[in-house]
Amino acid sequence: MGRAVILKTPAEIAIMREANQIVAETLALLEEKMAPGVTTWQLDRWAEKHAVKHGAVPAFKGYRGYPASLCVSLNEQVVHGIPSKKVMVQAGDIVSIDFGVKYKGFYGDAAITVAVGEVGERQAELIRVTREALDKAIEQVQVGNRINDISRAVQHHVEQHDFSVVRQFVGHGIGSQLHEAPEIPNYHRSERTPKLLPGMVLAIEPMVNIGGSDVQVLADGWTVITSDHSISAHFEHSVAVTENGPLVLSERIR
Ligand code: MF3
Ligand code: CO
């Protein structure tokens, strides 16, 4: 049995939308600045500065000892890549950037993957399919559906394109904690999964590999890479469940 799911009031969801808007604006800013020669450390600095300017606190820094504000995961890195002054983004790289903030007591969390310059056809397809898998997952965010409907939508779309979903890391509920119940795997489970109720807020985050699904954590204790060193992509949105369907809190509205 997992921990209980915490439902949010409309007022709390409004605050979470503000938090996630700060995240979304930060990711858009970083996407603009992304270019060959930029270090992953510079991306981290820009992210933190932008969040603080808007009255938010970077959520990842210090979380279980994570040493930076941003996660930057290049190529075969799946998630939780640590920014470094020594790592420059290069043309041909696939760069995942994942950012979270705390604002007025609530968290926002989102991620995008961008191609730097020209990348291979299969790599461009990976990014597109991962983004589409997130969209298909969000379509399943309807009262009365179950977490499994979200999971199944991601896995189905990914496997249709002969990519694989990561199983060792999952999406999560989000609210006054960065990680809340329920877990949101990117693969279908045979057991019964929670029903979606109005007021749930879900961080849905497909992690998709060109090769096999297996991943491992590097000796730095954080960086997750594909075991076969194949390229990986990651997108994430924080989504509220409402009577009128999904409300994508981390989609830019202003
Ligand atoms: N979006 C990621 C997650 O939900 C970011 C966490 S990185 C950490 O797990 F450093 F905060 F752990
Ligand atoms: Co997350």
What does this entry look like structurally?
By secondary structure, the protein is α+β, with helices and mostly antiparallel strands. The protein has a single domain (10-241), classed as Creatine Amidinohydrolase (Alpha-Beta Complex), CATH 3.90.230.10. The protein has four helices and 15 strands. Strands 8-7-9-14-15 form a five-stranded antiparallel beta sheet. Strands 1, 2, 4 and 5 form a four-stranded antiparallel beta sheet that branches. The protein has a three-stranded antiparallel beta sheet with strand order 3-12-11, with no helix packed on it. A hairpin with a 6-residue loop joins strand 7 (171-173) and strand 8. Helix 3 runs antiparallel to helix 4. The longest helix is centred in the first third of the chain and has 24 residues, at 10-33. The chain is globular, with a radius of gyration of 17 Å. It binds 2-amino-4-trifluoromethylsulfanyl-butyric acid (MF3) and cobalt (II) ion (CO).
Q: The CATH topology is what?
A: Creatine Amidinohydrolase
What is the class in the CATH system? Alpha Beta
Spatial strand sequence of the major β-sheet: 8-7-9-14-15
The domain count comes to 1
Architecture, according to CATH? Alpha-Beta Complex
Q: Give the uncertain stretches in residue-range form.
A: none
Beginning-to-end CA distance, first to last residue:
40 Å
Instruction: List SSEs in N-to-C order.
Output: HHEEEEEHHEEEEEEEEEE
* Total helical elements: 4
Could you say which small molecules are bound to this protein? Answer: 2-amino-4-trifluoromethylsulfanyl-butyric acid, cobalt (II) ion
The Rg value, from CA coordinates, equals: 17 Å
Major sheet summary line: 5 strands, antiparallel
